[in-house]
Amino acid sequence: MEQSRIQHIIEKISTAKIAVYGDFCLDSYWIMDERGSEVSIETGLQAQAVARHYYTPGGAANVVANLSALNPAQIQVIGTIGDDMQGRELRSQLENLGADTKALFVQKEDFNTYSYLKRLVDGQEEPRIDFGVYNERSNETDQKLLAAIEQALQDSDALIFNQQVTGSINNESFIAQTNALFEKYNNKIVMLDSRHFNDRFENTFLKCNDREIASLNGQVIHPGEDVPVTEVKKYGRAVYEKYKKPVFVTCGERGIIAFDKTGAQEVHGLQLKSKLDTVGAGDTAISAITLCLAAGFAPIEAATFGNFAAAVTVQKLYTTGTANAQEILAVSQDPDFIYNADLAENERSAVFLQDSEFELCEPGVLGKLGQIRYAVFDHDGTISSLRQGWEEIMEPVMMKAILGKHYDTVDSQAFHRVLGQVKEFIHKTTGIQTIFQMEGLVNLVREFGYVPEQEMLDKFQYKALYNEGLMEMVNKRMEKLAAGELGQEDYTLKGAIAFLHELKERGVTMYLASGTDAEDVKHEAEMLGYAHLFDGGIYGALKDYTKFSKKMIIEKIINDNNLQGNELAVFGDGPDEIREGRRAGGISVGITSNEVQRFGHNPAKRPRLVKAGAHLLIPDFSQYKKLINLLFQENVKYADA
Length: 641
Hints:
Blueprint: H1 3-13, E1 17-22, E2 24-32, E3 50-59, H2 60-69, E4 74-82, H3 85-96, E5 100-107, E6 114-121, E7 124-125, E8 129-131, H4 139-155, E9 158-163, H5 172-184, E10 189-194, E11 205-209, H6 210-216, H7 229-243, E12 247-250, E13 256-260, E14 263-267, H8 281-294, H9 299-313, H10 325-331, H11 341-345, E15 359-360, E16 374-377, H12 390-403, H13 412-429, H14 434-448, H15 459-482, H16 496-505, E17 509-517, H17 518-527, E18 537-541, H18 550-561, E19 568-572, H19 575-583, E20 587-591, H20 606-612, E21 616-618, H21 624-631
Parallel strand pairs: 1-4, 1-9, 2-6, 4-5, 9-10, 10-11, 11-12, 16-17, 16-19, 17-18, 19-20, 20-21
Antiparallel strand pairs: 2-3, 6-7, 6-8, 12-13, 13-14, 15-21
Helix pairs in contact: 2-8, 4-5, 6-7, 8-9, 9-10, 12-13, 12-14, 12-15, 13-14, 14-15, 19-20
């Protein structure tokens, strides 16, 4: 979706009037710090010290917070709170968000405000403490709520009906009377998001997740289990056909699927490199989607906008965050989509081309082949193995940077928690410029908090530390190469050089583009004897890192040569170049190379390349003749799946 369209949506939703019925909750966050604790004189027990605490809207109140962040014309809340300090704090927060709270009714008996106390110890959440578990909403309160719902259906552009708390609807008559209202106002937008009663309400739009849509079709899904997208599409169509109202199914990192009279329309999830917290993402999605619908936009546009909004929220840690207009605009600019997430996680469903080791990830690419005139290659892990093992050098550099003087003394559990995040970060950022990886390292050092701010290095200093270790390894290998102890074949992937020569013979203009420093890339390509083949140029990271990226190179090639997408092929073992090739409309070929033996498949590379959008996966170039036949359609035998 173009930025101008996003801006148009933001402007239009500012005229929408939204009402929210639901379970209004207060989320309480206590940041614990044992360094301030003491033993109680009175009890002899160890006290637990709270370093700081804060409170945020939760449940339906978080939906209101998300609506408020996008500045609609009006927000009305319809719900129940207790006569307690949590209820007073919650009402105050809702009013500060600009919401009308006249229909937020106080029930003095048998009702405590829903509140969830979350204690955080060393960044990890302890078992939650819940308030309001034994609430019993009275018939009198229900009647007040029903009257407010009917008024909202008359006055508002849309109503969000949000139910999250077990037992929050305890009177059967409330469901029946609500359904009667939804039938009476069948022309109004009512967006249902109910954890326990999705199957009990009618005449509503529906927002649910993949497990919930499966349950509505009678399937038993275990906690944490993902439902394949193909199945989600089947279940979503069935629910739409039953109620004839749009359905929106959120699928985590796999995005959102919208169902309406046009069928199932898939919105890809976004690849995000930062640490994620998915709490509240569903509230963000339903808020953004409903605002779009209320402003008159089609379900597919609503789902796309909601997907961008949720991508903002999941990057906000330890809070049920919101997404404002500026943040949505930022995340929607050149987004990194996740493709074929189900295929990425299930190698058993891979489809290979006849008589080859080539995995076909996108069958539609076969119709685009045969027109390649330009090719962009990543270097390390794609052609060269000189830098094989760089991850093993970056990992300890990052660990020592994050833990500082605590590196040798931190307990094993904390060490492995940091290590897990470091490995995940390196995995996600393979192929991008080193300086951007070091920028991410600075954020990790700050986030973990082991190193005081005044002792932290900047991204350039961290890069220098990493390069020192890396170049020590590379230089030793280069010395053996120069001495003739090892040759070109010992530091290049099987068949890679022969493949380059085949492209050259067919008049393909080739470019080498690496996240490694430009001078080093050129020197290594020359030492390995193939620099001259890259007549388009050899590119790498510059001192002014803003002046180089693989995206810039690919865009320049397309613009300078007025290319159609299928005239460009991109080859690489990292998601960065594969993603940029896909974004540009080119043909993206992922290399799942085993860099240690320089031939064969490394299964660890496959998921990230599939998600980045690879059309085709190859382990190496050992079958380069078959690859040439396929890419140039010189022998269609290899184009049959």
